[in-house]
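From the methods appendix. Each design record in this collection lists the tokenized structure first, followed by the designed amino acid sequence. Records were kept in a plain field format so they could be parsed without special tools. The example shown here is representative of the layout used throughout.

RECORD:
FOLD TOKENS (255 positions):
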């Protein structure tokens, strides 16, 4: 009971802090699905997110915001590459940094999972690039991988989503990516710049995209889970809430 109370207290504190930072409007996209109407509700949410994304003021290299909220969310959780947390159960997210629906999950669904099961050591969260939106998705994904090589990959991913512009609008420039990297706390920007353009890192973007396709995914974000209670990597239906992901993790914990 105390662990659950602590989780709820942390979540309430995050909500208060985010609201103070000006994130109240993002909370309007909270994703709720009923079992029978789940698919239709998910489609409706996707439309809302896409429409709101087309009106975003994000994508501006000169006004990156949200770094403090991201740092609070991820503080104290170990990172290795684009892996957040320590292993018991692995939750895989395949996303496109240009995807407005992925942005919605980043802001409304995943924080609860990170604060609860990732922070508590029950699961680790692995981000894999699944570049399906357009040409700008590849350099964005490579930049995230390069940030991950300096221990700031999840900070980069989360901060990118919070400053996401309209998809394929040309905002993913060198200046924008550098602003996100600096805001995410990447220590060696010169190394990050070289790494993100390297064949090695670009090949990794292609590899995770191919992995998502091999798993049968056709959209973003897509999720899979692996743990003592699964037979290898098991794909998940698109979750309607953080509780759906938490239930999948709990199921994968039990052999």
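DESIGN:
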């Amino acid at each position: 009971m105390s662990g659950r109370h602590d989780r709820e207290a942390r979540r309430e504190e995050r909500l208060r802090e985010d609201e103070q930072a000006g994130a109240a409007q993002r909370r309007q996209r909270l994703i709720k699905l009923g079992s029978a109407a789940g698919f239709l509700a998910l489609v409706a949410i996707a439309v809302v997110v896409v429409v709101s994304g087309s009106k975003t003021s994000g994508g501006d290299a000169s006004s990156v915001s949200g770094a403090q909220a991201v740092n609070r969310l991820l503080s104290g959780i170990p990172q290795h590459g684009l892996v957040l947390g320590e292993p018991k159960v692995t939750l895989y997210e395949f996303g496109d940094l240009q995807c407005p629906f992925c942005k919605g999950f980043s802001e409304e669904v995943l924080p609860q999972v990170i604060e609860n099961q990732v922070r508590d050591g029950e699961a680790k969260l692995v981000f894999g690039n699944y570049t399906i939106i357009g040409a700008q998705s590849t350099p964005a994904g490579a930049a995230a991988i390069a940030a991950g090589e300096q221990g700031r990959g999840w900070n980069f991913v989360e901060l990118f989503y919070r400053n996401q512009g309209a998809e394929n609008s040309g905002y993913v420039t060198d200046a924008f990516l550098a602003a996100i990297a600096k805001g995410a706390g990447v220590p060696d920007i010169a190394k990050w710049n070289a790494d993100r353009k390297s064949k090695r890192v670009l090949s990794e973007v292609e590899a995770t995209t191919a992995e998502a396709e091999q798993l049968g995914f056709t959209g973003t974000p897509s999720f899979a889970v692996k743990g003592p209670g699964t037979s290898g990597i098991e794909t998940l239906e698109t979750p309607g809430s953080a509780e759906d992901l938490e239930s999948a993790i709990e199921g994968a914990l039990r052999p």
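APPENDIX NOTE: The two ends are 23 Å apart (CA to CA).
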